[in-house]
Amino acid sequence: MEFGLSKEHEMMQSAVRDITAEYDKAYWQDVHEKRRPPEEIFEDLAEGGWFGAPLPEEYGGQGLDLLDTVVILEALCEGHAWETTFRFTMSTVFGGISLVENGTEAQKETYIPGIAHGEDVWALGMTEPDAGLNSSRISTFAEKDGDEYVIDGRKQWISGMEFADHLLLVARTTPFDEVDRKFDGITMFIVDPEADGIEYSEIPLDIYYTEPTYDLFIEDLRVDEDQVLGEVGNGMYQIFGMLNVERITAALSGWGAGKEALDTAVQYAKDREVWSEPIGAHQAIQHPLAEAHAKLESSRTDLRKAAWQYDNQVGDVGEVSNIANYLACKAAWEACEAAMSTLGGMSASSEMGVSAAWGVARHQRTGPVSEEMILNHIGQHSLGLPRSYNE
Ligand SMILES: Cc1cc2nc3c(=O)[nH]c(=O)nc-3n(C[C@H](O)[C@H](O)[C@H](O)COP(=O)(O)OP(=O)(O)OC[C@H]3O[C@@H](n4cnc5c(N)ncnc54)[C@H](O)[C@@H]3O)c2cc1C
Q1: 105 C-alpha vs ligand 1 centroid, how far in Å?
Q2: Quick check: 123 and 164 in contact, CB under 8 A?
Q3: Of all atoms in ligand 1, which is nearest to the CA of residue 90?
Q4: Residue 165: Cβ-neighbour burial (10 angstroms; 0-12, 13-18, 19+)
Q5: Fewer CB within a 10 Å sphere, N or C end of the chain?
Q6: What is the pTM of this model?
Q7: Structural domains present in the chain
Q8: pLDDT confidence of residue 302
């Protein structure tokens, strides 16, 4: 069993660090205060081809695997650029991985190069107000009409709609009451976010979140049948592979928020003196930081392991991705909590950036999958306990 990074991994880390080193704390403070996308660093990452890291070379990607990608995302997080990892999940994973796993040759040729070159942003339209985490109950419906589908419904919490060039929309093509298995009859569509038939409005947020998120109202949206991704009626089974990858990359966003908060707090604990020694000398400050470090480092290994299992299709990739997500997001939240206590009043300041990380880390415990649903899954499928809820 090999735990060390390869020479290639070190080269990737160093190339990413060269980019993140160009963006200082003042840059990220400006991004937080204006709640704006960090377009400048996105451009540098696009130029370096990093959005195409796990996408095939024949479509403009770098042809790396998911473990390599995790190492790259870790380097972004450690270079204070953890917020860029969300855009990576949206475009490279929602768009790129879904296309790699399910696209036709024509779809791959059309869409992957734009993602790999960092030109196209994707969004995922899965969640609905009346279905929540019970995605078998989505009711947005696509009705076949000649060589088109006509789609009606509602989506909620769809991140990045305003910037997105493409939306991966998940809809029913057979009503829930008419299917044998609850996930039958669901289909993925590639949709133009600005098409007639889609309206969206931003959901006001009190907490900081990196990408703005939207309510979607869909009425008489006409989509050509060529825009179906994967097989009609089989979309939910086909999207699971991408969702496992999302578990890993989204957890890295939470992990990065936790790491950022911890690094800021450790420096503060060394510098801040209110009695005769730095506050980091007090065990009540030091131990939670040390514990946070231990848990973040341990969950780094879990995330790498999950990525390796995905790359090699070994074992239960769903289970290991869920476990890594659960542990990393919880570790991130605890790191942010420890950082808040360490910074005292300064934890509320935008100068330190810890409040922003804290809000994001908390939400990564709920989305893309909540820790309650992960524990339900582990309880039922890994431990063989009775299912704790009904359809
Ligand atoms: C900022 C933000 C960005 C997002 N971006 C996207 C996006 O781009 N695309 C997209 O499709 N979605 C997106 N989402 C949606 C996100 O994935 C969901 O909010 C998340 O999956 C939780 O769903 P819900 O809010 O409907 O929770 P609900 O299903 O209403 O559940 C509420 C709470 O009850 C718990 N619960 C529910 N059922 C059970 C049970 N059986 N056992 C135990 N506990 C249970 C849940 O764990 C949760 O804590 C985003 C959400 C947010 C807040």
Answers
A1: 33
A2: yes
A3: 8
A4: middle
A5: N
A6: 0.96
A7: 7-120 (1.10.540.10), 123-233 (2.40.110.10), 236-382 (1.20.140.10)
A8: 98
Residues in the chain, total? 391
| Cβ-contact 83, 147 below 8 angstroms | no
> SS3 of 275, please?
coil
Atom of ligand 1 nearest to the CA of 134: 29
If you measure from the C-alpha of residue 113 to the centroid of ligand 1, how many angstroms do you get, rounded to a whole number? 31
- Does the CA dihedral 354-357-359-365 come out positive or negative? negative
For residue 205, what are the CA distances in angstroms to 35, 269, 382?
11, 31, 36
CB of 370 within 6 A of ligand 1: the answer is: yes
Q: CA end-to-end span of the chain, whole Å?
A: 42
**How many whole angstroms from 13 Cα to the centroid of ligand 1?**
33
Cross-strand pairs, 159? 213
DSSP letter at 179 equals: -
Half-sphere exposure of 383 (CA within 13 A, CB side): 11
135 lines ligand 1 (CB under 6 A): no
Burial class for 121, CB neighbours closer than 10 Å (0-12, 13-18, 19+): buried
Interior/surface letters 206-224, b for 16+ CB within 10 angstroms, e for the rest = eebbbbbbbbbebeebebe
- In eight-state DSSP terms, residue 48 is T
DSSP state of 273: B
- What pLDDT, on a 0 to 100 scale, did the predictor assign at position 210? 84
What are the average pLDDT values for consecutive 10-residue runs of the chain, which has 391 residues?
92 98 95 92 98 98 98 98 97 98 98 98 98 95 98 98 97 97 97 98 92 96 98 97 97 98 98 96 98 98 97 96 98 98 96 95 95 96 92 71
Find where tokens 């042809």 sit.
Answer: 63
User: At which residue do the structure tokens 């800021």 appear?
Assistant: 264
Angle 137-376-371 (CA atoms, 0-180°, nearest 5)? 90
Q: Is 372 in the pocket of ligand 1 (CB under 6 A)?
A: yes
